[in-house]
Design brief:
Blueprint lengths: L1 H4 L3 H9 L4 H14 L6 H9 L8 H21 L9 H14 L11 H9 L4 H26 L5 H26 L8 H16 L1
Length: about 210
């Protein structure tokens, strides 16, 4: 995929040397779009739309976010538990899954994702929305590992693990549908101003 989305060296230099004011970012963004082949091959588009991954998400960042969500979800369950009722590992796991589904995920365009974001946006696909979905799916994968580890340790029964995995899979299926809808340009929820802002921030980080 890298070869199909990379701008040439001169385009990269013009991008990196642009000033970091919003107007210049927009002008550079427009220049980059004009430089991309207006009629990419069908194979290139299929590679973009149906590839397993689009964004470059650091696994360490995902694990840190998962730990943060889980800690907050566990604490919330402890606060609101009914008197004289013990909270079981199943309850914590189930509450954690719900927390992941509702967590307001914020994403940025990293320097190594700028070219990808430009190309996807040129195809009418919002890169930020796709990255947000992929990040939530990664969180659910960690939740699945958590369920597996709890079952192996004998903390939950097999039927409980099956119920939790079924719940996770339901969320994953929904996210896959949402991702496919974005890649087919059925829904674009973020405005281009958000994309321009993220590009400007990524450029600032690159230039420092």
């Amino acid at each position: 995929m890298t070869s199909s989305i990379s701008l040439n060296l001169n385009q990269k230099m013009q991008w990196q040397n642009a000033q970091s004011t919003p107007n210049n970012v927009i002008n550079t963004f427009a220049f980059a779009l004009e430089s991309i082949d207006k009629t990419p091959s069908a194979n290139a588009i299929n590679e973009l739309r149906f590839g397993n991954r689009i964004s470059n998400i650091d696994p360490i960042e995902i694990k840190a976010l998962y730990s943060q969500i889980k800690t907050a979800a566990d604490a919330q369950l402890d606060v609101f538990k009914a008197p004289n009722k013990d909270i079981q590992p199943f309850d914590y796991l189930q509450n954690n899954i719900d927390a992941i589904a509702d967590y307001p995920i914020e994403v940025n365009i990293e320097p190594d994702e700028i070219n990808t974001a430009i190309l996807y946006n040129s195809l009418g696909i919002n890169f930020l929305d796709v990255k947000r979905i992929e990040m939530r799916m990664d969180l659910f994968e960690l939740a699945k590992d958590d369920v597996k580890n709890n079952e192996k340790a004998g903390l939950i029964r097999k039927d409980q693990a099956d119920a939790l995995n079924e719940k996770i899979q339901g969320h994953m299926d929904l996210l896959l549908d949402q991702k496919q809808a974005l890649l087919e340009r059925k829904s674009i929820t973020d405005s281009e101003e958000v994309l321009f802002q993220q590009l400007r921030l990524s450029q600032d980080r690159t230039n420092t």
